[in-house]
């Protein structure tokens, strides 16, 4: 595909436009706001200029790339476009208007893709008469750098359409995975446990934000702890995804947003971008800003045994009781959700693991981790944790419930 349109010139839309242009595509970058378009083009020039400074792009390649991106303030004259990617705000009514306009402006053979991270592709496609050509292409921020693209098939998406979107992502140097149109797709569903279980541990007074982050980095091998990552992404953005997944899953308790995060967002503490979230960012100092009401906890003999076995199987040895407990709860929640996604037919085991390593930089795919730990050990830990939680959120996924 060589003729592309991107609707929405915000951070994600501009990033997708840059990616496609760097791969030789002519890109129509569309936004109703001329101010947003101008700002996007200035930022693109700045980003490409930085690549030149780093020796990753020649000045001639920079100029050619910028020339390939053609800003326009309306969806029109897109008859030669082969792929149109929508990257506007996460509001269904606005997306419907965009897709209705794209269907009229593009040729009948053009693929119409949404970069949505949380809305249903099937529902988005309702704005288009030929729904078979509507797919999801969920890029991760920053789009020119992050390797993963989730290719999402709506209920009426044609396999030829998803295959073409997959191939486009692959030729742009990305790592595409196929996913079914379910809440959160792969990454935003499976990753909920990383954030929500960490918040529950904080709320229960088991450990503080820096302790939990340190355990997951040093013991688990994660590049960033859950609170560090929420601060980087934005607490408001992270909470919006959690809320969307929670509502779309019929308010399943394992996805319930936590009041600590809700309070911080309501107070305007959104993380790095506001200077304060779970940490406070002042000058060069980064200090925990969310105090822990520390309370003692005691594990039952069974829970102590299963968390020790789980952590040992995951490669975490000589950990304190607190370290093993924190690590086990968070990783078990991630692994169990990956099992739910596999049992629900969202994606293959390989694609789930690939999505979580490439989309979130996990040190190992959750299902591969489960195999290393041992499915029976995983099931035993989940059952013990579920009994201790009393709310059913750790009920083993069918994939683990049937493990032999």
How would you describe this structure to a colleague?
- The protein is α/β, with parallel strands linked by helices.
- The protein has 18 helices and 10 strands.
- An 8-stranded mixed β-sheet has the order 3-2-1-4-5-6-7-8, with helices on both faces.
- The longest helix is centred in the C-terminal third of the chain and has 23 residues, at 321-343.
- The chain is globular.
- It starts with a strand and ends with a helix.
- The mean pLDDT is 95.
Question: What attributes characterize this protein structure?
Answer:
alpha/beta; two-stranded antiparallel sheet; 8-stranded mixed beta sheet; globular; 10 strands; single chain; 18 helices; 404 residues
What proportion strand? 5-15%
Cα Rg = 22 Å
**Strand order across the biggest sheet?**
3-2-1-4-5-6-7-8
| Low-pLDDT sequence parts | none
Largest sheet: 8 strands, mixed
Order of helices and strands: EHEHHEEHEHEEHEHHHHHHEEHHHHHH
Query: How many helices in DSSP terms?
Result: 18
What's the total number of strands?
Answer: 10
Would you tell me the structural class of the helices and strands?
alpha/beta
Cα distance spanning the termini:
47 Å
Q: What is the helical fraction, as a range of percent?
A: 40-55%
Overall morphology: globular
Mean pLDDT: 95
Write the layout of secondary structure elements.
Blueprint: E1 3-7, H1 11-22, E2 26-30, H2 34-53, H3 59-68, E3 69-72, E4 83-86, H4 92-105, E5 111-114, H5 121-124, E6 134-139, E7 148-153, H6 159-171, E8 175-180, H7 187-190, H8 192-203, H9 209-219, H10 226-233, H11 235-248, H12 259-266, E9 279-282, E10 285-288, H13 301-313, H14 321-343, H15 349-359, H16 366-373, H17 375-389, H18 398-401
Parallel strand pairs: 1-2, 1-4, 2-3, 4-5, 5-6, 7-8
Antiparallel strand pairs: 6-7, 9-10
Helix pairs in contact: 1-2, 2-3, 8-14, 13-14, 13-17, 14-16, 14-17, 16-17
């Amino acid at each position: 595909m060589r003729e592309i349109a991107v609707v929405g010139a915000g951070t994600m839309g501009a990033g997708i436009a840059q990616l496609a242009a760097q791969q030789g595509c002519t890109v129509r970058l569309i936004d109703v706001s001329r101010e947003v378009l101008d700002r996007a083009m200035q930022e693109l020039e700045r980003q490409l200029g930085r690549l030149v400074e780093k020796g990753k792009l020649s000045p001639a390649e920079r100029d050619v790339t910028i020339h390939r991106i053609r800003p326009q303030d309306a969806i029109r004259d897109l008859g030669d476009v082969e792929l149109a990617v929508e990257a506007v705000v996460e509001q269904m009514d606005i997306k419907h208007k965009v897709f209705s306009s794209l269907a009229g402006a593009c040729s009948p053979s053009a693929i119409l893709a949404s970069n949505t991270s949380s809305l249903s592709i099937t529902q988005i496609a309702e704005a288009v008469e030929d729904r078979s050509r509507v797919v999801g292409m969920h890029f991760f921020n920053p789009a020119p750098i992050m390797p993963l693209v989730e290719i999402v098939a709506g209920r009426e998406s044609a396999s030829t359409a998803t295959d073409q979107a997959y191939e486009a992502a692959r030729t742009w140097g990305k790592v595409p995975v196929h996913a079914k149109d379910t809440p959160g797709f792969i990454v935003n569903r499976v990753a909920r446990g990383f954030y929500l279980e960490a918040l529950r541990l904080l709320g229960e007074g088991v450990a503080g934000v820096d302790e939990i982050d340190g355990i997951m980095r040093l013991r688990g091998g994660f590049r960033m702890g859950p609170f560090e990552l929420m601060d980087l992404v934005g607490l408001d953005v992270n909470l919006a995804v959690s809320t969307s997944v929670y509502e779309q899953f019929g308010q399943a308790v394992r996805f319930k947003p936590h009041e600590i995060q809700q309070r911080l967002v309501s107070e305007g503490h959104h993380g790095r971008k506001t200077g304060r979230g779970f940490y406070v960012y002042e000058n060069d100092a980064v200090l925990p800003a969310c105090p822990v009401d520390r309370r003692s906890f005691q594990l039952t003999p069974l829970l102590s045994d299963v968390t020790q076995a789980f952590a040992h199987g995951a490669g975490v040895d000589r950990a304190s009781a607190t370290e093993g407990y924190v690590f086990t709860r968070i990783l078990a929640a991630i692994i169990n959700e990956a099992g739910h996604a596999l049992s629900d037919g969202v994606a293959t085991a390989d694609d789930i693991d690939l999505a979580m390593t490439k989309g979130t930089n996990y040190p190992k795919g959750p299902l591969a981790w489960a195999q290393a730990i041992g499915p029976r050990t995983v099931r035993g830990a989940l059952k013990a944790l579920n009994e201790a939680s009393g709310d059913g959120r750790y009920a083993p996924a069918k994939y683990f419930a049937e493990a032999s």
